Amino acid sequence: MIIKTPEQADLQYLAQNLRKSDIDEIAASSGLSAFDCLCESVKNSAETKVVIWNGKPLFIYGVARLGNDGCVWLIGTDAIIDCPFAFVKICRSILAQLKQRYGRLYNFAYAKNKKALKWLNALGATIDSRTVKRGPKNDEFKFFVFK
């Protein structure tokens, strides 16, 4: 796997190949198209990287700095299911590096995205049991934090 700064072509590929769960979460949180959401996320983040696997973007992640803390995000393609162990391993490595640069990492996850909540939990996130209404349709989200 290669980690690099995302280019326009990476964003276009990702937008056309995102997991359905990520498309649903983007719609619930922002109402934007996948491509517009990726462009806005990159623009508003202090750091953003894309992970390349087998020559194609596998996922993109970033952090928007808020004081000493960071609002962390990750959006991926269906190819993640083809490399589950490598995906978890690289996510743990990335998370360890980000934790060194930020006081805490947090965000809100779409409450309907059970796989994402399970993955966040496996990575060590503390997930609030309560839901918060967010987005254009007041969908339910759960706050999570990595300390």
Detail the topology: elements first, then pairings.
Layout: E1 2-4, H1 8-17, H2 20-29, H3 34-43, E2 47-53, E3 56-66, E4 69-76, H4 84-101, E5 105-110, H5 114-122, E6 126-127, E7 132-134, E8 139-146
Parallel strand pairs: 4-5
Antiparallel strand pairs: 1-2, 2-3, 3-4, 5-8, 6-8, 7-8
Helix pairs in contact: 1-3
Q: Would you write up a description of this structure?
A:
- The protein is of the alpha+beta class and 147 residues long.
- It is 39% helix and 33% strand.
- It is built from 5 helices and 8 strands; from the N terminus they run βαααβββαβαβββ.
- Strand 7 and strand 8 form a beta hairpin.
- It starts with a strand and ends with a strand.
In the CATH hierarchy, what is the class of the domain at 2-103?
Answer: Alpha Beta
Cα end-to-end separation:
26 Å
Roughly what percent helix?
A: 25-40%
Uncertain regions: pLDDT < 50 for 5+ in a row? none
**What is the arithmetic mean of pLDDT?**
94
CATH homologous superfamily (4th level) name of the domain at 2-103: Gcn5-related N-acetyltransferase (GNAT)
CATH topology of the domain at 2-103: Aminopeptidase
Q: What letter string, H or E per element, gives the SSE order?
A: EHHHEEEHEHEEE
* Main β sheet profile: 8 strands, mixed
Contiguous helical run count: 5
- Give the total of beta strands: 8
The share of residues in extended strands comes to 25-35%
Q: What is the structural class?
A: alpha+beta
